[in-house]
Design goal:
The chain is an all-alpha fold. It has helices at residues 2-25, 30-53, 56-87, 91-96, 98-105, 108-112, 133-136, 140-155, 157-182, 191-202, 215-252.
């Protein structure tokens, strides 16, 4: 008798998981399509709530309703995440996937906000969940393009790390030089601030809050600016080569 009940319960659980999997992970059914539309609408509204919370004049008047709305959305997304883990063919694979990580990160800021004030604003990461609209609009090919970019970045990671180490070394050395040459009288009060100036100059941003006054300092600044344009081309070339190789492999497959 107990075995029969156990078997029936297991069959019922399997049926529930299958139904939930169809609704949550697939959009080729009426319920699946409706779920995705409601999910995307809810995500966009929740992001709007976070944006409104950051506006002092609005938050002052509607602080409590906005807070309740944020907690409600977080509760709904938490339940949805748990349901995805429950009905996924492989909970581990889903949790480790791009969307699985994004789904988790979209609810964590609110919980962390109870400990660290202001971190709930990071909930805007939920915007990445809207990428599911590609599946909804039958634009799956764009999802594969995203996967190619992610794979390319993984393949180029070692080269990028070496490149970044070289850039950090360059700005550290040049920042130290400019600190010695210009000194406090020109606003370069310490090496970290001088390194900050070197980074801003190398990336050709040029905020203008610091600038060399001596002829030698201006020469170094000019060299850093020119070097900045050269450096921009390096990572672009590295990634472009890997993207071309990834596209060739995909065509062969």
């Amino acid at each position: 008798m107990f075995d029969m009940i156990k078997i029936m319960t297991n069959k019922q659980n399997i049926s529930i998981k299958k139904t939930l999997n169809t609704i949550i992970f697939k959009s080729d059914t009426h319920l699946g399509l409706l779920f995705d539309i409601l999910l995307i609408a809810t995500i966009l509204i929740s992001i709007l709530v976070v944006l409104l919370e950051s506006i002092d004049s609005i938050n002052f008047v509607y602080k409590t309703p906005l807070k309740i709305a944020e907690l409600t959305f977080t509760g709904l997304f938490s339940i949805e995440y748990l349901l995805r883990l429950y009905c996924a063919k492989s909970a581990k694979n889903y949790a480790k996937s791009f969307f699985g990580i994004v789904d988790l990160l979209s609810i964590l800021p609110t919980f962390i906000g109870f400990i660290l004030t202001g971190t709930h604003y990071l909930s805007v990461i939920r915007i990445l969940r809207v990428l599911r609209i590609f599946r909804l609009l039958k634009l799956v090919q764009y999802v594969s393009e995203i996967e190619i970019i992610i794979q390319t970045l993984k393949n180029s990671s070692k080269k990028i790390i070496v490149f970044l180490f070289m850039v950090v070394s360059i700005v550290t050395i040049l920042g130290s030089f400019i600190y010695i040459i210009e000194g406090e009288k020109s606003g370069f009060t310490n090496i970290p601030i001088s390194i900050y100036w070197a980074i801003v100059t190398l990336t050709t941003v040029g905020y203008g809050d610091l600038s060399p006054q001596t002829p030698l300092g201006k020469i170094i600044a000019s060299m850093i600016m020119i070097l900045g344009y050269c450096i921009i081309a390096v990572p672009t070339g590295l990634v472009s080569i890997d993207i071309a190789e990834s596209l060739k492999k995909n065509k062969k497959n």
